[in-house]
Inverse folding.
């Protein structure tokens, strides 16, 4: 019979495996192992980094054919304290936007990659003030078979914390959709996997929306070079989410649920692999 210490160690190991397995089952920002932190999604403030989105499976056995990703860069973002849920102003805490200058790297999984840009709170990049930035990536014309892992590389610059802010970290929540079939029937769950933590007006089906789970990364404050003000105590973390309006505007792809197809017939317009994504947005 196992002694108590060994039994507790075994339980802890199994718990870790279960948690890791659940995390691996979701499309999210790929975690990284560092010399000081295992399975980290942290980025240091003011740095530029290369990340990957990880796609661990298709939709109910179907291959992933298209994908969209929405960053919380709009003026209508939802921002709150992580400990209390209190709404806060992002501009009181950071300089810049949550994800700046995001650009996708070339990959072999999708034939076509679009960058959708839009208006954002103004920020300075390389000495130039900008009021437009990346809002979303759209990938189409792909076939990632179920059971294979897909890695989607991308690069971005992360904001700095203002010296008078009490925030120690910013969790950046990102909306991701994997589209697999042209079905518009809500009886079929092989349409898509929608990785957003809440329902929206368009994405209203709990069978394909990951209610309660968000893909994310975390921007951490450099407390050595940018310490907290003395009256902040230990400080607190904040989180930023894309608004429902931004999700419903940028996440749909023509031809896939819940968007209408190019011919306005619910998306059943044939799969040519090159859809006219998002109409008139700046690409």
């Amino acid at each position: 019979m196992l002694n108590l210490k060994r039994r507790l160690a075994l339980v802890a190991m199994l718990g870790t495996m279960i948690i890791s397995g659940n995390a691996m089952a979701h499309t999210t920002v790929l975690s990284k192992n560092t010399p000081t932190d295992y399975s980290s999604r942290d980025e240091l403030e003011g740095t530029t980094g290369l990340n990957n989105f990880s796609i661990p499976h298709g939709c109910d056995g179907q291959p992933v054919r298209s994908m969209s990703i929405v960053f919380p860069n709009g003026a209508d973002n939802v921002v709150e304290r992580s400990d209390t849920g209190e709404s806060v102003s992002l501009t009181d805490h950071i300089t810049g936007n949550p994800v700046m200058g995001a650009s996708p790297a070339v990959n072999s999984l999708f034939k076509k990659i679009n960058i959708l840009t839009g208006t954002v709170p103004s920020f300075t990049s390389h000495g130039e003030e900008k009021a437009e930035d990346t809002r979303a990536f759209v990938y189409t014309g792909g076939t990632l078979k179920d059971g294979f892992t897909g890695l989607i590389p991308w690069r971005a610059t992360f904001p700095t914390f203002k010296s008078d802010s009490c925030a120690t970290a910013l969790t950046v929540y990102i909306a991701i959709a994997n589209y697999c079939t042209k079905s518009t029937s809500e009886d079929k769950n092989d349409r898509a996997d929608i990785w957003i933590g809440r329902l929206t007006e368009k994405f209203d089906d709990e069978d394909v929306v990951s209610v309660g789970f968000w893909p994310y990364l975390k921007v951490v404050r450099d407390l050595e070079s940018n310490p907290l003000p003395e009256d902040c105590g230990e400080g607190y973390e904040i989180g930023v989410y894309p608004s429902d309006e931004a999700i419903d505007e940028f996440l749909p792809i023509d031809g896939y649920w819940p968007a209408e197809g190019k011919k306005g017939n619910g998306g059943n317009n044939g799969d040519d692999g090159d859809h006219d994504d998002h109409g008139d947005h700046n690409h």
